[in-house]
Amino acid sequence: MDLLKVATELFLSKLGSSAGGISADQVAGALSSLLGGADGQIDLSDLISKVSNSGLASLAQSWLGDSANSGFSVEQVLSVLGQSKVSEFSSTLGLNEATATTALSYMIPELIDQNSSSGGLLESVGGVSGLAGMASKFFS
Fold first, then answer.
1. Gap between the Cα atoms of 47 and 44, Å rounded
2. How many domains does the chain have?
3. Where residue 20 sits, what CATH number does that domain have?
4. pLDDT means per 10 residues in the chain (140 residues)?
5. Domain of life of the organism in this record (predicted)?
């Protein structure tokens, strides 16, 4: 499964009519820069670690589990990804920052949720205890 393609489609769907003339290739390039690993693909484990290390482990756990997803606020998106990176992302796409950040706040939990069914992604971070361990390191 191509996570970048899935993320691109989700992001464009969250933008709705605000997408204007933005192409899928533009979004894929911008998302790759914002959320990408060394290979240019989206690194969900790294993203979950960033969320958890920002004091939001319970939030990440809700996305990884099979229950309802907790919301990801615009402020949390900016805190986890960094104001300057989100600003650069929105500028690359020609969007105002509020529109881009709102779309990201809906897209990221859904992307993680869709790609974590059957526990594969949760297991990659060491299960619930591994997720809690990441969070405890943040507060040490």
1. 5
2. 1
3. 1.10.10.690
4. 88 89 93 84 89 91 87 95 96 95 96 74 47 44
5. Bacteria
